[in-house]
Amino acid sequence: MKRFLMFSAAVLSMTLAKAQSSGGAFSPFKVDIAFGGAIPSGTGAKGGVLFALEPKYAVMPQLSVGLRLEAALTARGFEANDGSSASAKVAASSSYLATGDYYFSNNTFRPFVGAGVGIFQLASASFDNSQIDGTVGTGSATKFGGMIRAGFELSHFRLGIEYNLIGKSSESTTESDGNGNTVTSTVSSKNSYLGLKLGFFFGGGRK
Q1: Fewest beta carbons within 10 Å, which of 74, 102, 112, 193?
Q2: Residue 80 CA to its chain's centroid (Å)
């Protein structure tokens, strides 16, 4: 998370300097900044917030490629092998995706569709499990995943919806139930989440 914030600040500083020197004129290079809600999948999950920074370069007027850096703060849902479910404590995860967007128009109003692939860094998550009278969960993990999205840009503002596809996490814990019996508890968590974003961008576009 700390590396994500440091890298984001560096990219943002370079972009602001470039935008000021170019006077805001149209440029193939731009950086999207977005805030929004993150809605995780799975029983017991609770939504949270996200922040994203995405430098891009337009290889042609209607096609841009970029690197999406995103941090999402959510409470993932867990399901145990005894059929119970629970919400884990709130934790942050980050992602680094190579992206591509296709625009259907070069006018002021620009609807788009896009996709991306890359790395998701998941924070450890845990919850209290009464079956073993203790805390269980999954450790931190790095997973390869993808993203699909759609939305539109209007002037220098951007509205989009994204679905981040990430594989499940699972972990087994063997402990005593307090009565001399050994209990193995297996929990799994769905890591995919939906992102609803509202943002703006520096550079690119038109005045």
Answers
A1: 102
A2: 25
From residue 117, alpha-carbon distances to 95, 97, 99, 164 in Å are 10, 5, 7, 9
Burial string for 43-78 (b: 16+ CB within 10 Å, else e) reads ebbebbebbbbbbbebeeeeebebbbbbbbbbbbbb
Residue 83 phi/psi, 5-degree rounding, is: 95, -5
Residue 144: domain span: 31-201
Residue 165's CATH number:
2.40.160.20
Model pTM greater than 0.70?
A: yes
**How many structural domains does the chain have?**
1
Does residue 87 lie within any of the structural domains? yes
pLDDT tens for 59-109 read 988 999 999 999 999 887 777 666 666 666 677 889 999 999 999 988 889
